[in-house]
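Appendix B, record 7
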Amino acid sequence: MNKQTTPPVRKAYDPDKLQALLQYIGRLLPTDQERAAFYRCSRTPPPASLRLNALQAQAQHVRPHLRQRGQRVPWCSEGFALPASDAGLGQTIEHALGAYYVQAKAPMLAVEVLAPQPGERVLDLCAAPGGKATQIAAHMQNSGLLLANEMQRKRMPALVGNLERCGVANHVLTQARGTMLARYFPNFFDRVLVDAPCSGDGIVRKDQNMLTYWSPQDAQHLAQQQKGLLRAAYQMLRPGGTLVYSTCSLSLEENEEVLLGLLRRYGEEVAILPIAEFAGPPLPDALAAQFPAEFARCVRVWPHHHDTEGAFVACLSKRAPTPIPEDAPAWAASATAPTPAEARRAVEGRWSGALPCPPDQIFTLSNRHLCRQPALGPAIQEHLPYFVRGGMKVARLHKEYHYLSQQTVALWGHLMQGPTVELNWPQLQDLFAGRPIYCDPPTGLKGEVFCRFGPWTVCRAIAREEGSLLEGMLPRALFRANLDRLV
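Structure tokens (predicted):
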């Protein structure tokens, strides 16, 4: 990045409460030396980190810079830790156009263990704010079905915004409690992620706000909710599929004891799988003896071992199907879904480029929007009362003209050859500040054009006065008062 920004000042909290939390978690470490290292590390902020978005083809231009300046995350080939001075990662053009997601190192592990594949059916049961959902979609190469569910309405805007910014097209978004969703999708998903709401005792390095409500009793209360979510997730997993349970907590209550609740319900039908190539300090013998020996296959990401936040990850599988309710839908792609070939041809002809669409995805028309979504999307919309939206808005129809969405421009603009204006850095800063752009000399173009900057197709704009004035069509959500650049 061109400018160095000062990291935010961390608010100081009651040192006694911080020490109480650290001692409560520190008892899970096997030696005094480990505990002392954990205490020291937990009083310092974690390094900045990000994950490249493989869905955005232009993200490849960022990778050489990150290799030179950052350090690769051991368990995620797309993840990089950066120097602490690299604050303001959310203010760059690369971030605005979806080239990367600002994400801590520890949360990346859950999706790498889940290992979703192209064409599969995958459920992210607690999806907001969208870091893991966008990571899953990248693994799936925007194919198959990603059901991104979020129970809390107030968290939906962040989830939608991140799915759009990162160009996720293979998703169906729902809002439901896990128990309600399980009635509709028994034994359905190839892979399920439960990144459960938790006390957050593992993120004290990053955010000491959690100290205002943390207590062992709070963790025990949250564990009851986590047990219900995990049981619902297990019911929706197909036999032989993979279920990952993760939290940003290190406590026994929200991790091993939650898993123990699932085993008590389903017994030997549940398999706990080893997590390859990940080592950390084991639980002390006295604590480990309280749980089945297979629990040693679960992992904790300890801050002092991996210089990140704390987390817990368990990988499970299912040996036998769970009972199917009599009224459960038999999901199949809708035979009556519209195929808006004319709208697709109009967009491709206007901008001289093809709109990508894997075989298991379809184009549909919805509320005057041309969308790309999973083939099962229309059927889910028709039969699931918790449906919110599906897929990626490609273009909007207005007065017989199709206007490309910002997602389409940023994600696939490099595949199109329509009229283009190349911007310089000051012009780009004006664009992201919401100001008109003056071109000298004039471009000679009129009407709708692409704005490009280096490898990036930034947005659409309207060229006026023979191209001497450009009015950018950048969404306000992407405005940056002080636009920066990573490369």
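Remarks on this record: The radius of gyration is 24 Å. Residues 216-236 form the longest helix (21 residues).
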